[in-house]
Amino acid sequence: MALLEAAGLGVAYNVDGGLLRAVRNVDLLVDRNEVLGIVGESGSGKSTVAHALMGYCASGAVITSGRVSFDGTSLLEQPAKVMRELWGRRIAMVHQNSLATLTPTMAVGRQVAETVREHRRISRTDAHRIAADSLRAVSIQSPELLMQRFPHQLSGGQRQRVSIAIALSLEPDLLILDEPTTNLDVTTEAVILDLLLEFQARRGSAMVYISHNLGVIARIASKVAIMYAGEIVETGPAADILREPRHPYTRALLECLPRPGLTKHVGRLRSITGTFPSLRNLGGGCIFRDRCRLRSDICDAVPDWVAVGKDHAVRCWNQVAEQSWNNETRGPATNLRVGDGVVLEMANVTKTFGNRSVLQRGTSQMVCAVNAVSVRVRRTAIVGLVGESGSGKTTLLRCVAGLERSDAGTIQAMGADLPADLHGRSREALQAIQMVFQDPESTLNPAITIGGNLRRHLLALRPVDGVTATEEVRRALTSVHLDPAYVDRLPAELSGGEKQRVAIARAFLSCPSIVLCDEPLSALDVSVQAAIIQLLLDLQMENKASYVFVSHDISIVRYAADHIVVMYLGEIIEEGPSESFDTRPLHPYTEALFSAIPTIDGESASKRIRLAGQISEHDKTTLGCLFAARCPRKLGMRCEQERPPWRTVGGRRYRCHHAPNDLLALQEAPIIRAAEAMISPEWNSARKPAHGN
Amino acid sequence: MNTETASDGPALAANLTLRGSLLGIWRKLSLGARLSAVVVMIYILMALFGTAVAPYSATNFDMTQVLQPPSFAHPFGTDGFGRDVFSRVLVGARTILVFGSVATLFGVSMGCAIGLVAGYFGGLLDEVMMRFVDVLLALPGLVLALLIMTSLGPSDVNLIVSIAVVFMPKSARVARSTVLPLRKLGFVDAARMRGNGWVAIVFRELLPNVGDELVVEFCLRFAYALLLISSLGFIGFGVQPPTPDWGLMISESRNVVSIAPWIIVFPALAIGIVVVAVNALAGGLMTKGGRRTARYL
Predict the structure, then answer these.
(1) Which residue of chain A comes nearest to B2, CA vs CA?
(2) If we measure between CA atoms, which residue out of A259, A255, A244, A253 comes closest to residue A320?
(3) Count of CB atoms situated within 10 Å of the CB of A291
(4) What is the pLDDT of residues A446-492, one digit of tens each?
(5) How confident is the model at residue A329 (pLDDT cuts 50, 70, 90)?
(6) How many CB atoms lie within 10 A of CB A300?
(7) What superfamily in CATH does domain A342-568 come from?
C-alpha cells in the first residue's frame, strides 16, 4: 500500500466572482523510498497540490473532490488535533521562500528546537542538542554559532538549510518540498540536493519534490508527474519521461531548454505559443488544446489516461511519436556576428559599499563589491557576466548604468568617457545605454498604464510631438509581439512575461547601442524564457545593439552570449569566447559551477564537484587567491600566499597557479566529491574573523 | 537572485474592468459605505444651497421669537437671540465643510510632499524632516491648533493654517511609509536612467502610487477637521461670529441647555452625523476602493 495516495483530488479557491478551479482530478501515488517530482510552471497548481497532500487547506481554498490518504488514514476530514500530530513528525514540508517561512523574531536555533519539543517530551537542553545535530546534518559547520542568529542575518542557502533541518529534525516519513532551491545559487543547490538524497537513502522516506526546473527533477526524482493548469498530463519514471516524453506539453517544455552544443548560431529555442487558459471559465476538452502542436478535432473531448510504457501514462489522444512531432531543426536564432570596434569599455572599475555601523565602533565593514574589473564589449556582441551571489556582477552592471557610482576606474562608451553619475551624462549617453531589469513585477509603474509607462520614457529621451509619440509607442508594442491595444491596460493586468516584453520595448525606445540586462529571465517560466531570448536576439539584429547580459543561469549564457566573463567575489577569474567554454572550463571555480548545473541528459553523478563552505566576504585576502578557501584543486601554501597570475590559452584567460595542461589533466582524473579545502592554521588566522559558517 | 515564484502565469484581469468610473466604485462599496456616501452628498448639497433654501436669516436677531421650542414655523426652534436654529444649521454646513476641506487639503498636501521627499531620499534628510514631524506629532491636535491660534490671533485664515499644521505630520508619515518600499523598485531605476531628476521621480512616478492611500487619508482627516473646527468654535477660537458655526452654537447655549435643549441637540447631531458618515465612507473606500483612475500621461 502506498504511503501517500491522492485520488481524484480537486481544490478550488473562492475569489470575487466565482470559483477558481486550481487543481482538478489529480491522482498521485508515492511510496517509501520513492521521490515523486512534480513539474509545473506558474499557475499549474503545484503549490496547491503540495498543501493538499499534507491535508492542509490554505485560506480561501476548498477541497472540491477526491481524497488524500497517508499510511491508510484519510487526511482530509481529520480534526485539527490529529493533523497537528502528523505535521512535523510524520509529514514535513519545506517552502520556497525561507525568509517568509522562518519566524523573523526568533533565533534560528530556537525554531529548530521548537519543532522537536512540540512532538517529543524532552528537556530544553536535549532539544537544543538535537537541533544542533540536525543543523550539522545539513552541512552547517559550527551550528552553535549559527543557532543564535536570526533569519535575516543568514544567507539564502543557510536559511533554506535551516528550513530543511526543521523538516528533517524528527525524521518524517514523508517530506514535501515546494521549490526549495529555486532562489539559491547553483552550487548551493547542488549541495542541498545531495543532502536530500542522502537523507532519503538513509531513512527510506518518501519525498515529493516540486519544481519547474527539469534538470533538478532529473537529478532527484525517481518518478515524475507533469502538471499543466491544474491537471496532471503525464506520469511515469523520471528517466522515461525525460528521455521520451509522450505528452506534447512535456515535449515542448523539454525543447525550451538550451542544450550543450546548441548556440544561437546553430538553432532557435522553441517556445510554447499561446497563453495560459483561464481557470474560471474552463471550456471542455483537453486543457492544453489551445497551445498544442498536435491538436486535432478529437481534442475537444477530455482525454483519458493512456498507458504508453511501464508505469508511464499520458493523458492525450495524440501522443507524441517521432513521426508526428515536427522535429525539423529550425534555423539559427541570429545571424549577427560580433562586429569590429569596442562600444563599451570598463577599466579597473571599483565599487565599495561602506557599512560603518555605529554599534561596532571603529570597525567599518567595507564591502568591496567590484574590485578593479576591466571588461570590453565589442559592437553587436553579447557579453555574458556569470557568477553567483556576491560576485559583483550586478553591481558592475549598475555602475555602467549609472545607478551606482563607481569609486575608481573609468567607463567609456563609444569612445567617450562616461560620467559615473547619471546627472552628468548627456542625452546621447542616456539614449545609448538602457537597461532591462530583473523583476517583471516591479519594472513598470503600477499606477500608470502601459502606454503611459512607455510614453514618458520616450518623451524624456527623445522629445517628439504627441502624435509621433503615440505612433512610436504602438510600434514599440508590436515590435515585442504585443497587441497595441495593451496601451490602455495597467501592468497588473499583464502576465510576467508580457510585462517583461514591455520592459524590453521600453529599453529599445531610444534605439540604444548598449542594452544592459540584469537577469531578465530568472523570474520567468521556462517556456517564456525561450520566447524572450528570441525576442532579445531579434531586437539586437534590428538595432545592431550590444548586450551585457548578467545571469546566474549558465546554460542560457552559453546559448546566447558571444563572450563569457566569470566573476567571483568582485573579480574576474576567467573570461573568453563562449565557444571555448563549451569544450572545457579551466578555472576550478568555473569547473565547479558548470558541473553543478543539473542537466536532464543524465550526466553521471561522478562528474560533480562539490565546493565546501560558501562564498563569503571573509575569503577575501590581499595575499592569495580569492578562491583558495574552497578550491578543490588547491596547490597548497602557494595559493594562500601568492596572487595567481593571468594565464592565456587561445582567446581565453584565467587566473590560477595551475598551468592549462595541468588543469586539463586534473579534470580528466577521477573525481572529487565533497571537496575538502586544505587550510593551513596560519592562513586561517590571517584572514578576517569569520562569523561562523 | 530575488526570484519569487516564476511568473507569466494567468494575468489577473478580473477586478480591474470597473476601474476609473464613479459607478464602478459605487458598485464595490458595502451597504454601510453607500449609506454614508448618500449622507455626505446631502451635506454637500446643504453646503451648496443652504443659504438659498434657508427659510429665515441665519444671523438676524429677532427678539420676539427668543427660545421657542421646535414647531412648524421653526423646525429646530430658536436660540437666545431669536435666530432660527434650522437656518443656522443649514448655513453652518457651508462654513464647516468649506473650512474643513480647505484645511485638510492643505494639511494633507503639505504632509504628502514632506513624506514623499523624506521617504525618497532617506538618510540624513529623512531623519531631520521626520524628527521635525515628530515634534508636531507629539502635541495633541487640539492643543497644537490652540497654540497656533493664540499666537497668530483668531481669524479665519489662521484657523485654516492651524488645522493644516495639525494634519501635516500624520499625512507625512503615511506618505513616507508608502514610498519606502517603492524607491528601490525597477521602474524608479528606469526613470533615473532616462534622466529624470528627483522632482520628476517623486511627483510623477511615486505620487500616483500613494494616491489611493492619500485619498483615504484625506477622508479620515476631514472628519477630524470638522471635529476640530467645532471644538475650537466651542472654545471660542474657531470661526468668528456672526458666521454660524455649529460648535459655537453649542457653546453659546450652554447656559440655557436645561430649558432649551434643542439649541444644542441639533447642531450636535449635525456634527456627529457628518463625522460618522465621512469616517464610514473612508473606511469603505479603503477596503473596496481598488484602483480609481488610470493615468495615461
Answers:
(1) A183
(2) A244
(3) 19
(4) 989 999 999 999 999 999 898 999 999 999 999 998 989 999 988 98
(5) low
(6) 13
(7) P-loop containing nucleotide triphosphate hydrolases (3.40.50.300)
Helices A466-479 and A496-507, axial angle in degrees (round to 10):
130
All residues of chain B having their beta carbon less than 8 Å from the beta carbon of residue A460 are: 194-196
Domain A4-245, CATH homologous superfamily name and number = P-loop containing nucleotide triphosphate hydrolases (3.40.50.300)
pLDDT > 90 fraction of chain B, expressed in percent and rounded: 25
Considering only the beta carbons, identify the residue of B7, B196, B291 that sits closest to A490. Answer: B291
Residue A456 C-alpha, separation from nearest chain B C-alpha, in angstroms: 7
Spatial strand order in the sheet of A416-417: A367-378, A342-353, A408-413, A416-417
Check residue A325 and give its pLDDT: 66
Higher pLDDT, residue A623 or A405: A405
Q: In sequence order, what are the beta bridge partners of A541? A: none
Give me the total of CB pairs closer than 8 Å, taking one residue from chain A and one from chain B. Answer: 163
Residue B248: which residues within 8 A CB-CB, separation 6 or more? B233, B234, B236, B238, B239, B241
Residue spans of alpha helices (H) in A450-600: 450-461, 466-479, 496-507, 526-543, 554-560, 578-583, 588-596
Evaluate if residue B178 carries a pLDDT over 80.
yes
Cβ contact A639:A628 at 8 Å: yes
Domains A4-245 and A342-568 share a fold: yes
* Sequence-separated (6 or more) residues with CB below 8 Å from residue A22: A11, A12, A13, A45, A48, A61, A230, A279
Residue A438, all three cell numbers: 530583473
CA-angle at A350, arms to A344 and A351, nearest 5°:
110
Cβ-proximal residues to A673 (8 Å cutoff; 6+ apart), any chain? A608, A610
Alpha carbon B148 to its chain's center: 19
Partner residue facing B296 (CB), from A179, A451, A495 = A451
pLDDT at B17 exceeding the cut of 50: no
pLDDT tens profile A351-364 = 888 755 555 544 45
The domains of chain A are located at 4-245, 342-568, 584-686
Q: How far apart are CA B103 and CA B138, in angstroms?
A: 20
**pLDDT at A625 exceeding the cut of 70:** yes
Please tell me which of A15-19, A160-164, A330-334 the model is most confident about, judged by mean pLDDT.
A160-164
Q: Residue A69, by phi and psi: left (phi above 0), alpha (psi -120 to 50) or beta?
A: beta
**Overall average pLDDT of the B244-261 stretch:** 83
B5, B179, B188, B293: best mutation site toward chain A, by most A Cβ within 10 Å? B5
Residue of A nearest to B12 (CA): A493
User: What is the pTM for the complete model shown?
Assistant: 0.82
> What is the value of ipTM here, to two decimals?
0.81
Helix (H) or strand (E) holding A69: strand A61-70
Cell of A60: 480561501
Which residue numbers of B have CB closer than 8 Å to A's CBs?
A: 1-16, 19, 185-187, 189-190, 192-197, 204-205, 208-209, 211, 291, 294-297
Kindly compute the dihedral angle of the four CA atoms of residues B92, B97, B103, B104, in this order, to the nearest 10 degrees. 150
Residues of B in contact with A515 (CB under 8 A): none
HSE of A648, CA atoms in CB hemisphere, 13 A = 2
In this structure, which amino acid lies at residue A498? E
Q: Per mean pLDDT, which range of A126-140, A541-555, A594-608, B187-201 is the poorest?
A: A594-608
Structural domains of chain B in order of their starting residue, each with its CATH number = 27-288 (1.10.3720.10)
Give tens-digit pLDDT for B99-137.
888 999 999 999 999 999 999 998 899 999 999 999 999
The alpha carbon of residue B177 is apart from the nearest alpha carbon of chain A, in Å, by 17
Q: Is the pLDDT of residue B71 over 60?
A: yes
